[in-house]
Amino acid sequence: MSVRWEQIVVDSEDPARLARWWAEALDYRIVHEAPEEVEIRRTPDEMPGLLFTPVPDAKTVKNRLHIDLRPEDQEAEVERLVDMGARPVDIGQSDVGWVVLADPEGNEFCVLSSRKK
Known about the structure:
Blueprint: E1 7-12, H1 15-26, E2 29-34, E3 37-41, E4 49-54, E5 67-69, H2 74-84, E6 87-88, E7 99-102, E8 108-111
Parallel strand pairs: 1-4, 5-8
Antiparallel strand pairs: 2-3, 3-4, 6-7, 7-8
């Protein structure tokens, strides 16, 4: 049996707004938009994507699944994302080599340090 990972579904208060934020953050494109869902991918044919769907509740607890980003320049990427509306959050990570941020709806994600060459 063969299986392919197609997407991660992100519950959101405003799917269109959050999808556009993540599309800009990741340099992805909107590949599907309907009243009840918005999907973004790097290219229309490249999976996996992120599918944003509406939920009536605000986020209240730490995510059980999150995205890790690995930029070439961690400090510059954190600054760019914060300028876009992300905010630093403390989830008890202490002194580590990554920075935890939250997107505009409070979903945590990590910005890792650059890979050592």
